[in-house]
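On clarity, I found the account of how folds are encoded harder to follow than it need be. Since the whole study asks how a given chain folds, the encoding of that fold should be made plain. The format is easy to grasp once an entry is in front of the reader. For illustration, here is how one protein appears when written out as sequence plus structure tokens.
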Amino acid sequence: MFDRGTSLAADNKNRTAAVSVKNLRKCFRPLEVLKGVSLEACEGEVISILGSSGSGKIDVLRCINMLEVPDSGEICIGGEMFGLTKGRCKTQPADRRQVDRLREHIGMVFQNFNLWSHMTILENVIEAPVHVQKRNRAECIEEAEALLERVGIADKRNYYPAHLSGGQQQRAAIARALAQRPKVMLFDEPTSALDPELVGEVLKVMRSLAEEGRTMLVVTHEMAFARDGSSRVVFLHKGVVEEEGAPDEIFQNPKSDRFKQFLSNG
């Protein structure tokens, strides 16, 4: 068992906040999906975000990456806050160039892979480093091949996504996110679209990333990963943080009745 909560608890105060979210609010009228969510991930922390359908957990990730623009609140990446401005109808980014620049530090892994179907796996992995970050193509290919080796699909480098299993596609998506050299990784229920027999191969890669000290925010329904692979667990309910804490604490002694019910239903 890999206990990140114990290993990081003592020195979190000395760590820089890789991601900081304060009083985040988001409304899809008439529904307010986020009602003042605050959370923080220090460098090297793995935060598992739990919650039932409709709790707002995925909306938090999408706001952090500015795929959805929050109505209010603060989002900081590596100490730099996204600028927001009030438009006539809704809030919008104050500077699109800042959004693009900060996104380069965020690796996003989606539940449905989101690989480009017309590109090979290798082409998928090098696309952002070459065309967005303007890095040397030969170096990007070399790094991509190493990443594909690491996630166990080096032999699929010239295949198209349709020719890979779901588990292989998700591992390719993880390699693609890593190729950006991100400061933080966001995982949007990365195993929910997989057949049960393929879940383990993706969780194995994620555990290896956690063990090497990657900063990760993981929306997941995999309780074993949340217990053993996280430094902290955050439970959302109807757009608010209902409970949070170290895995041992929050699972063994939950204080919230809603979280107790969530665990019993799981």
Observations:
- The two ends are 21 Å apart (CA to CA).
